[in-house]
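Intended use. Records like the one below are meant for learning the mapping from a protein sequence to its folded structure. Do not use them to infer anything beyond what is encoded.
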Amino acid sequence: MSGITRLNTKQTVTVDDEIANCEIIELTDWAGAGVIMPASTNNSTYTLWVAEDRDGTFVALTDTSGVAVEMTVAASKGVPFPDEVFPFGAVKLVSDTDGDTVIVSFKG
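Structure written out for the chain above:
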């Protein structure tokens, strides 16, 4: 063990197929994060929307080619957030289904 202790925490987040109904995930204190899909949840694809902070205007996150950044997470699986999300202060996960609940795990 290295003796370095890194802060970590989790947030249970409700995601939706409408951006207005999605919870804000704040990233300002975290160096990494990922989504854990509970076994009881359907497989989902999430489009990431970002803002400079929780009060900002959320816009679709794209790669340098203009393609929407998405995450697909199967039930009982975990997937890390893509690197493209971390320059921003806040993110929303917009689902292809209505009303999923997922766990977001953060690492400092």
